[in-house]
Amino acid sequence: MACTTGLAGVCLAALPAHPAQAVIGGRPTSTAQAPWTVAVNLWRGTDAYPRSGQFCGGTLVTPTKVITAAHCVADEAPTDLGAVAGRTDLRRHTGAWRRVAKVWIHPRFGRHLENDIAVLTLDRPMPPGYTPLPVATGADGGLYRPGTRARVYGWGLLDDEGREANVLRSADLRVLPDRTCARLNPGDFDPRTHVCANNPVTGDHHSEGDSGGPLVAGGRLIGIVSWLSHDNAATPTPGVYTQVSAFSREIARQLRR
C-alpha cells in the first residue's frame, strides 16, 4: 500500500518538501455538511479494519466518480480499492461504500508529485443523498485569487504525535499568492498546476492521511491535497494542492467514460 510521510503514507522518492500529511488544528465536521467527501480505503477492510481501512481522501464529483491524488492509488490495483461516503466517524458502519472498478491516473504523474490527480470509477452509483461537488474549470479563476477563503477536509493525523482522527475534520484556509510558494519551494511549486493555501493565524493544515482530499472554495472543488510546502515565520505551514481547474479537460473526459 502507498507509504511516505505524506498524506497517504506513500512510498515516494524525492518528494518536494514534506508530502501532505486529520487536518492538524481545524475542527470536527460531518459528512452531512460535506456529503461529497469520501474516504478512500482498502475495500475488504471497510467494516473490518480500524477506521474503515481509510488511507486517503477523495471527492465525489458524480455518483460514480471520485477525484483523488494520483500518489494515493498509483501502487494499488483497482480491485483492492474502495470508497466510503456518509461515514463521518470511520469506526462506525454508517454510510455507503463502493468498490472501485477502474482507476485513471494522469499519464504525466511523476514521483515528485507533479500532475498529482486520479479519477476513480465506482462499481455502482452512490445513493442520491450523497451530493457530488462541482469541479472548478478555467472559468473559475477568481477562486484562485490570493486571499480567497477555502476549506480542506480529511481524516488524517490530528497532531505531530501521530494521533489519528476518527471523525472528519476541516480547516479554514486562505489561498496564497503563487510567488509565495514558488519562493519557498523553488523548482517544486508550479503555478500552472498547483495552488497553495494556509491559515496565517492558526497554522492549521492538512496532515498525513488527508492526501487526495478536497480543497473547496465557492462551492467547488478547487484543489486536491498533495503535499506540504516549506514555510517560514511569515508564512506558517502552507499546503500545496493540485490545481483542479488546470486539469478540467482531462477530468471532463474521464467523467464521460
UniProtKB/TrEMBL annotation:
Signal recorded as keyword: yes
Signal peptide interval: 1-22
UniProt GO BP: proteolysis
InterPro entries, per the entry: Peptidase_S1, Peptidase_S1_PA, Peptidase_S1_PA_chymotrypsin, Peptidase_S1A, Trypsin_dom, TRYPSIN_HIS
SMART domains: Tryp_SPc (SM00020)
Gene3D superfamilies per record: Trypsin-like serine proteases
Single GO MF descriptor: serine-type endopeptidase activity
Pfam families: Trypsin (PF00089)
Residues in Peptidase S1 domain copies: 23-256
Record bears the keyword Signal: yes
Keyword entries, A-Z: Disulfide bond, Signal
Coiled-coil segments: none
Family label: Belongs to the peptidase S1 family.
Name the UniProt record assigns to this protein: Peptidase S1 domain-containing protein
Organism encoding this protein: Streptomyces chattanoogensis
